[in-house]
Amino acid sequence: MSANRISKFLSLAAVAGLALSPISVSAQATAETANPLGLPTDLSILGNSDPNVRKATAVVNGFVITGTDVDQRAALLVAANEREISPEELERVKMQVLRNLIDETLQIQAAETQEITIPQAEIDQSYARVAAQNFGQDESAMGEYLRSIGSSPQSLKRQIHGELAWSRLLRRNFAPFVNVSADEVNDLIQRLEANRGTDEYRLGEIFLQATPETAPQVQGNAQQIVEQLRQGGSFVAYARQFSQASTAAVGGDLGWIALPQLKNPQLETVVGEMSPGQLVGPLEIPGGYWIGLLIDKRQVLTADPRDAVLSLKQIALDFTGVPEAERTPRLESFLAGVQQLRGCGDAEAGASALGATVVTNDEIAARALPEQLQQLVLNLQLGQVTPPFGSFEEGVRVLMLCGRDDPQAASGPDFDTLMGQLEEERIQRRAQRYLRDLRNDAYIEYN
Length: 447
What we know:
This is Parvulin-like PPIase. By secondary structure, the protein is of the alpha+beta class. It has helices spanning 3-13, 28-34, 67-80, 87-113, 120-135, 139-148, 153-173, 182-194, 215-230, 235-242, 265-272, 324-339, 347-353, 371-378, 415-441, and strands spanning 56-60, 63-66, 199-209, 253-257, 279-285, 288-299, 309-317, 357-365, 389-391, 395-405, 444-446.
């Protein structure tokens, strides 16, 4: 499975853990600040265990979490990384996975205590949907993939069980008591209208809570996360499994916001200077450390040219079997020939004469194209082609623009959508407080 496909898999199923790194401390004073309890700096919760031996790692209110459970859940994040993970880093991954499994167990137990049960048939249906989205209709293929990386269908189903149970508990116990007034929503709509044409940002965030005592360790952990993200880690997976913000459940996605909604002058300045795809942090903010990813940027209630719907023809030249000495002359002939094509009506016949093939793609949003091609295509007139791209190994192609429907001015989110967003934010804040209470009341034994 490719890295992109694995990232998609993680975003759908939220089944990975993440790596934490202990802080290396040289000065005694720093050590005392970072480790006020005087514990050994090389303390390790998990040892090197045979994954075939079901050795208990923790017992949470009587429920056993085994080393195998940890290993199988950690395997998913390892598979999603685009680089090898060292044995030391793998142990840190497992430590965080154990924390995640403890929280998941507390969530399931809290639901069961309140007589909320999730039928196995519903869990199986959710598992089948994940399989269909990532492996077509072949559910067995996902099972084979999971086992091939050291995980299992049972591990994923346990995660699905936890998410369904927690969501149902929140909807029953918190949602009925969350109130958002019509005035609040109307005020938000008015602010959006007043800001028409100004920039808004789609942000991903990871927030790590810290106290003055834990700040050095949390900052070090945050820096390790940033380094792993820069090396190809999945932002969605890391946010869902480690962020302590209310957006963790949706992979850290804050959605489209204006800078004042961040309610932090430092973040407003930083985000305002970011470019799409840029990662920043960790930044110290009140309460902890913040890591941000700018997913996209647009103007409030203004049509985005990238939402234009295009009709394109791909004209491709294949070099399979062509002797190396003939490749360059053939490429030059192809490039000269496509410039002579007389619009889309001449594409098929002209391409055939050049030894090329044509594939028609209708109803393609400009933003769905690779970023390097988006502006090139949007600058074309009908019948014009992009500069060539590709290679002798993969083939060389151009795109010809054959139709374009420009987007209408955006009307913005409707009343019900905005009310739903505000309600969800408040539910998630209550959920965080409730989970903290569950942790405080839990009986947990480590082995």
